[in-house]
Amino acid sequence: VVEAGVKSGALVTSRFAEEQNRDVFAVPGDINRPTSAGTNDLIYDGARPVIGARRFIEDLAAAGVPVKLQNLGSAAQARGLGPVDAAVFEAVRSDTSFEDIHKSLAMPARDVLTSLSRLEVAGLIMRGAGLRFSRKHC
């Protein structure tokens, strides 16, 4: 379930799937958006969170769904980024603080800041207030 309010047909269907012992996946959403309340509740109640395409496909493969993992690449690899920029790009999500990006990477802060600047100039991310970063949807 990608997006669902608290009273949604998608939630009815997902509850039916749970009753049939089927896996239910949900994309986490902004806690302040009513259209994310249902999906966030599903995750709270035990649905598998979908936090990236690769992990989602790996979860499907583990459940016995035939997939070809060798054809998957990260978004950073698809953009031809070098290893440092690729790692920093992968750490940036929606409205991610510099502190969170830096903590998730084992590299000096100056290297992270330099990479963030390159990614911003390349048009892949945008800087928000208070050293917060988000990916641009390209």
How would you sum up this structure, described in words?
- With 138 residues, the protein is mostly helical.
- It has two domains: 9-70, no CATH class; 75-135, Arc Repressor Mutant, subunit A, CATH 1.10.10.
- The chain is 47% helix and 10% strand.
- It has seven helices and five strands, in the order H-E-H-E-H-H-H-E-H-H-E-E.
- The chain has helices spanning 9-19, 34-44, 53-62, 75-78, 83-91, 98-104, 109-121; strands at 25-26, 48-49, 96-97, 125-128, 132-135.
- The chain has a three-stranded antiparallel beta sheet.
- Helix 2 (34-44) links the parallel strand 1 (25-26) and strand 2 (48-49).
- It is elongated.
Spatial separation of the terminal alpha carbons: 23 Å
Largest sheet: 3 strands, antiparallel
Look at the helices and sheets and give the structural class: mainly alpha
Q: How confident is the prediction overall: mean pLDDT?
A: 85
Count of helical stretches: 7
What strand line-up does the widest sheet have? 3-5-4
Number of individual domains: 2
Radius of gyration: 18 Å
Shape designation: elongated
Give the percentage of residues in beta strands: 5-15%
Number of strands: 5
Low-confidence stretches: 69-73
Strand/helix succession: HEHEHHHEHHEE
The helix fraction, in percent, is 40-55%
List keywords for this structure.
single chain; 138 residues; mainly alpha; Arc Repressor Mutant, subunit A; 2 domains; three-stranded antiparallel sheet; two-stranded parallel sheet; 7 helices; elongated
